[in-house]
Amino acid sequence: xxxxxxxxxxxxxxxxxxxxxxxxxxxxxxxxxxxxxxxxxxxxxxxxxxxxxxxxxxxxxxxxxxxxxxxxxxxxxxxxxxxxxxxxxxxxxxxxxxxxxxxxxxxxxxxxxxxxxxxxxxxxxxxxxx
Length: 130
Known about the structure:
Layout: H1 2-16, E1 21-24, E2 37-44, E3 50-57, E4 63-71, E5 74-77, H2 79-82, E6 85-91, E7 94-99, E8 109-116
Antiparallel strand pairs: 1-2, 2-7, 3-4, 3-8, 4-5, 6-7
Pfam family, one: V-set
InterPro entries: Ig-like_dom, Ig-like_dom_sf, Ig-like_fold, Ig_V-set, TCR_beta_variable
Protein name: Ig-like domain-containing protein
């Protein structure tokens, strides 16, 4: 049991000690209804694997999760947004969010977030000793 505890603790310390920088390409965009837009987000400064989340924030409302990705080429959009928006993640450290035909309903603040996937793989051996 002592070895398992030490292994878990070392993995947690390793996970918490990594720093990263998240960058979005656009700070402010004014566009017309019917036009398309692509938003890009990436992180740097670590070799860890992160989950990516895209959020929409409209004035006077709370944050809404638009979609997320747990790995490259694996993305899930929330039903409400899947009709007009799509997310891509062709590389582990980069993600994009696209809309091909903007409407006035899309006026909002958009941002991405990365969450580190920290987990351990440990082997536990049991015996039938009585």
